[in-house]
UniProtKB/TrEMBL annotation:
It comes from Marinobacter salexigens. This is Heme ABC transporter ATP-binding protein. The keyword ATP-binding applies. Residues 261-285 are annotated as: Disordered. Residues 265-285 have a biased composition (Polar residues). GO terms for molecular function: ATP binding. The lineage of its organism: Bacteria, Pseudomonadati, Pseudomonadota, Gammaproteobacteria, Pseudomonadales. Residues 3-238 form the ABC transporter domain. Part of the ABC transporter complex HmuTUV involved in hemin import. Responsible for energy coupling to the transport system. Pfam families: ABC_tran.
């Protein structure tokens, strides 16, 4: 396994946000983290990225705990895209993507920069200033920068992506997740992506990790996680699941009226504010 998380706990302002979380991620695998707002998805990613202090448990990358990796060495193998990246300086698209290759001379970095701008469909924006781009364009530019950091890395690579397609149109969402899946399968990247789009996750993910109140509610293949019972319990969502011929599930919300939304008893506040932990969350699926 490339990434191993065991009993992870992260506190913010003295309060536990992620609790007793365990999972693993192998090279060549795309794991999508799902969950309602406030479930702890971004907090988890920031903990894995080193932005939040780990209060409990242990995280290992390529056989060593995160604490044993120097910032320089792990930056060669772990690239992170946060949920929001604001660029207010008059930098061009090309200059932003080149930020992922800071120690290389221009002659060496430009082939990688050009390749990634083509892959993310931003080559035509090469000389545009970042503040004038649309939200979706800026998101694709930032993803190109993140990928530039580890594009030709020697050894294991971990991508941590927080809602990297939230501002994209449907075509570009498909394009980006298709690229992430190819990077996993063809280059052996380990990709952990936080997302809200259940059908996008079902289409491309090898496994899903569903968080609820900072804990793992269930983990497994898309068909194992995206069931009517689970969606009602975690999201309060009334939906039916269609098994597509393509081999992945499609979530279709039911029109049960507004009174059905958040009607699940499991979403009612409880003294412990905890979620049941499925044993599969402790195992590789």
């Amino acid at each position: 396994m490339l990434l191993h998380v065991d009993g992870l706990g992260i506190h913010l302002a003295g309060k536990p946000v992620v609790r007793d979380l365990g999972f693993q991620l192998d090279a060549g695998e795309l794991l999508v983290v799902l969950g309602p707002n406030g479930a702890g998805k971004s907090t988890l990613l920031k903990g894995l990225a080193g932005e939040h202090k780990i209060a409990d448990g242990q995280v290992s990358f390529a056989g060593c705990t995160l604490q044993h990796w120097s910032k320089r060495e792990i930056a060669k193998r772990r690239a992170v895209m946060p949920q929001r990246v604001e660029v207010n300086f008059p930098l061009t698209v090309e200059e932003i993507v080149r930020l992922g290759r800071p120690v290389e001379p221009l002659s060496q970095s430009m082939p990688v920069v050009s390749e990634l701008m083509d892959l993310l469909d931003v080559a035509h924006l090469r000389y545009r200033l970042a503040p004038g781009l649309s939200g979706g364009e800026q998101q694709r530019v930032q993803l190109a920068r993140v990928l530039a950091q580890v594009w030709d890395a020697q050894g294991p690579v971990l991508l941590l992506l927080d809602e990297c397609t939230s501002a994209l149109d449907p075509a570009h969402q498909q394009q980006v997740f298709s690229l992430l899946r190819r990077l996993a399968k063809q280059r052996g990247f380990a990709v952990l992506a936080v997302a809200h789009d259940l059908n996008l996750a079902a289409r491309f993910a090898d496994r899903l990790l569903l968080l609820h109140h900072g804990q793992c509610y269930i983990s497994g293949k898309p068909f194992e996680v995206l069931s009517e019972t689970v969606l009602a319990a975690v999201y309060g969502l009334s939906a039916r699941i269609i098994k597509l011929e393509e081999g992945y599930p499609l979530v279709v919300p039911r029109d049960d009226g507004p009174e059905a939304v958040y009607a699940s008893p499991s979403l009612s506040p409880s003294p412990s504010n905890t979620a049941p932990v499925n044993p599969s969350c402790r195992q590789a699926s």
